[in-house]
Specification:
It is globular and about 100 Å long. The chain has an eight-stranded mixed β-sheet. Strand 10, helix 9 (255-265) and strand 11 form a beta-alpha-beta unit. Helix 1 packs across helix 2, helix 5 (157-170) crosses helix 6 (190-200) and helix 8 (222-238) crosses helix 9. Among the domains are: 16-158, Alpha-D-Glucose-1,6-Bisphosphate, Chain A, domain 3 (3-Layer(aba) Sandwich); 216-374, Rossmann fold (3-Layer(aba) Sandwich), CATH 3.40.50.12780; 522-617, Roll (Luciferase, domain 3), CATH 2.30.38.10; 622-749, GMP Synthetase, Chain A, domain 3. The model is unreliable at 189-193 (pLDDT under 50). It has 24 helices and 37 strands. The chain is an alpha/beta fold. It is 31% helix and 24% strand.
């Protein structure tokens, strides 16, 4: 005999709802299933096994509640269809579609993350009020008999979505050039959205001959893109690889890059996107931590791969894409020709939690780290910027950023390929080719990194720079010092600056185009979002704590580290392959005991109107004379001085002095008047922010994602015997910079010079 008393607080008027682990338990779910099932049997006396359909939302407690709910229903003698993760309306649809006798959705609805509960239907009618009261009374009284029931998993997504989009089919003409928007909030709509995307935006089916990718003089249709991806799926399976196995991809930008990771992802594999600039140790490291056994290698990067050590070469099976003249490796193109272009059938599910990609950090502060990109995160990244940019099918998205990184390989790709637009793909960025390409391909959207905008501004005037159809530039890193100049010179109608890290859980978008801002959170929304700025100790490179050990929020105008609350059912942090690296990015006991926040590693500020501003990367900011110096502030000061093309600001040790002295590597068009430069900087900067050492370079080294390399410059230092570039040292007495020769260097090292 089963008998049970529910917590009186969870039996509500319209549903059953409580706090999981406190007022609601898995045993409650079991008992609910049993006594609800008995109620269904009593209402359907002619049926031996009445049909009940159950589903669940995406809360972390939902799977265990659903499992126990199902077990209780089986004990009551019901037949159960388990439809899995989905929104509540899908459960109601399934109840009608199968003419079910009952239906239950495990859902916490709009309530906070700790809550969960159940919404019920009985014989196609709502189950509430008196019904819930009677169920509670039945459980207290108990029931003496159990029955043999059974359950099975079914999929209702296709039927549900067909019903949703049915009206659209009848108004197709009115949808031309219109945008369809859906809002999934925090609901369990992921699987449904995916199907909607495939059905409404299924351009490989609806417009198979539309151009998906322009690459030099080559045009790849949506049909060719999908066919190619399907061949990679077959290649993955035919080589004995299974769900969760990793393939390393080392290839420069071209359509085959996208075919590869799409094809591998759609059958449950994981692709490690390797930086094409790496050689030697960094490449060894990136390949070894991937966990891959096979590498797809673009023929153009064979020399890079040959710099790896023997251990790497012997542990990988290498497939060459683009033609193979090396007998050691397998010709991938020849193998793909033999494979089917249809999607292979697989007998397993690829879920939101499965890993689609590994995307590596740039490695500016050490060895690259592989960030975990689940299918859930990938979908959010692909579609996340569509609602902000609102691309149209007629748009052409210009992408010169590397496909191995998130900005170029996911965001730009998503803007184009999830909307039926075209991706204009280039191998690399060229200042000389940019405006000609914009004209040639009729580009309407440009995916930028801030440094690209700076390069364009430094270039001579181009005949197409104001005569174009470019309507939106979107990206990150467009600094305040060039924002307005870039927009005005090139007549850019709209700039959409965003902020976020590949692996992080913080996202901001500057929708209204405020110059220099990376986004805005109004005061009335602040408590609803997961971002906060906390006071930061630059020397210790960690947040400041109060007397209780908690972090201290910054006031408006204060600079601190941006952090994002790790919410299991919302703003998650999937971390890195390296678990230790993952833990280093998690900040605990921030504002309450045992809470967890993601460390962005970025210094931000916020104004009174809720606009956020990027200040610097932690590590780029240094402390001198007891003051924090932002490299961005110093860099900005140089922009107002003629003939300087690029600057790279960093801090170096100066024996006998407090903190790190500012050193600046500069690239100039002509010789610099150092006295004028000194006076210019003196007028722009506080005394503690004045650069102490200058290094004049022919060019500044950057990463593959256009970030300045600083670690090597810091290591090289300022010894004239080690550095061949011209070096200059500040001379405050004479308001000038003087030649830093060996004699002056010895005085600095011997602490004879103090500033």
């Amino acid at each position: 005999m089963y008998q049970h008393s529910f917590d009186t607080t969870i039996l509500r008027s319209y549903d059953i709802r409580g706090i999981f682990g406190k007022t609601l338990s898995k045993n409650d779910a079991f008992m609910l299933g049993f006594f609800y099932g008995i109620t269904v049997k009593k209402n359907n006396p002619t049926k031996v096994n009445p049909l009940v359909i159950i589903g669940m939302d995406g809360r972390i407690s939902s799977p265990i509640l659903e499992e126990n709910l199902n077990a209780g229903l089986e004990e009551s003698g019901c037949e159960i269809y388990r439809i899995g993760l989905g929104p509540t309306p899908m459960l109601y649809f399934a109840s009608h579609y199968y003419k079910a006798d009952g239906a239950i959705q495990v859902t916490g609805s709009h309530n906070p993350k700790d809550y969960n509960g159940f919404k019920m239907v009985l014989n196609q009618n709502s189950f509430f009020g008196e019904d819930i009261k009677k169920l509670g009374e039945l459980s207290i009284k108990g029931y003496p008999q159990t029955y043999k029931g059974f359950s099975k998993h079914i999929t209702i997504n296709d039927q549900y979505i067909d019903r949703i989009i049915e009206p659209i089919k009848t108004i197709n003409d009115r949808l031309i050039n219109k945008t369809i928007v859906w809002d999934c909030g925090n609901g369990a709509t992921g699987p449904s959205i995916e199907i909607i995307t495939k059905k409404i935006v299924g351009y490989a089916d609806s417009s198979p001959d539309s151009i998906a990718i322009y690459y030099d003089d080559r045009e790849t249709t949506y049909r060719e893109l999908i066919n190619g991806a399907n061949q990679y799926s077959h290649w993955f399976l035919d080589n004995g690889l299974q769900k969760g196995d990793v393939v390393a991809l080392l290839m420069e930008n071209r359509p085959e890059f996208l075919m590869a990771w799409i094809g591998i992802a759609q059958v449950g594999g994981t692709t490690a996107l390797i930086n094409t600039n790496l050689t030697g140790h960094p490449l060894n490291h990136s390949l070894s931590i991937s966990g891959a056994s096979k590498v797809i290698l673009g023929k153009e990067l064979l020399e890079n791969f040959e710099t790896t050590n023997d251990s790497i070469k012997s542990s990988f099976q290498v497939w060459i894409e683009g033609g193979n003249n090396n007998s050691e490796y397998i010709d991938l193109n020849e193998s793909l020709k033999k494979l089917s272009m249809t999607m292979p059938n697989i007998d397993y599910d690829v879920t939101n939690q499965d890993v689609a990609l590994y995307i590596y950090t740039s490695g500016t502060t050490g060895d690259p780290k592989a960030a975990t990109i689940t299918h859930r995160r990938l979908r959010l990244m692909l579609m996340g910027f569509v609602s902000a940019v609102l691309p149209k099918k007629t748009d052409r998205v210009y992408n010169v950023l590397p496909l191995y990184h998130s900005a170029g390989g996911i965001i730009a790709v998503g803007l184009a390929l999830t909307t039926g637009a075209s991706l204009v793909l280039k191998r690399k960025f060229s200042v000389n080719d940019f405006w000609s390409d914009v004209n040639k391909y009729n580009v309407t959207i440009f995916q930028y990194i801030g440094e690209l905008c700076r390069y364009l501004l430094n270039a001579p005037e181009h005949k197409f720079e104001k005569n174009h159809n470019l309507r939106i530039a979107t990206g990150n890193g467009l600094r305040p010092d060039i924002w307005d100049d870039f927009k005005n010179r090139f007549k850019i109608k709209k700039i959409l600056e965003f902020y976020g890290a590949t692996e992080g859980n913080i996202s901001l978008i500057n929708y209204d185009g405020k110059s220099g801002a990376i986004g805005r959170v109004p005061s009335y929304l602040k408590s609803m979002l997961n971002i906060e700025i906390v006071k930061f100790d630059v020397e210790k490179e960690e947040p400041l704590r109060d007397e209780n050990g908690f972090c201290i929020p910054c006031e408006n105008g204060e600079v601190g580290e941006a952090i994002g609350e790790i919410q299991i059912d919302a703003a998650g942090f999937d971390g890195y392959v390296d678990k230790q690296a993952t833990q280093k990015k998690i900040l605990r006991n921030v504002f309450a005991k045992d809470d967890q926040w993601f460390r962005s590693g970025d210094l931000l500020s916020r104004d009174k109107d809720g606009y956020f501003y990027f200040i610097d990367r932690i590590g780029d900011t240094y402390r001198w004379k007891g003051e924090n110096v932002a490299t961005s502030e110093v860099s900005h000061a140089f922009q107002g001085f003629s003939n300087i093309e690029e600057v790279n600001v960093y801090g170096v040790d100066l024996p006998g002095n407090d903190g790190r002295a500012g050193m600046v590597a500069i690239v100039t068009k002509t010789d610099i008047d150092l006295e004028n430069l000194y006076n210019h900087l003196k007028n722009c900067l506080p005394s503690y922010a004045m650069p102490v050492i200058l290094r004049v370079q022919k060019e500044i080294e950057i990463t593959g994602t256009f970030k300045h390399k600083k670690v090597d410059l810091v290591k090289e230092g300022y010894n004239p015997q080690d550095v061949s570039d011209p070096l200059f040292f500040i001379d405050n007495k004479n308001r000038n910079y003087i030649n830093l020769d060996t004699n002056l260097y010895e005085k600095i090292i011997n602490k004879d010079i103090k500033l």
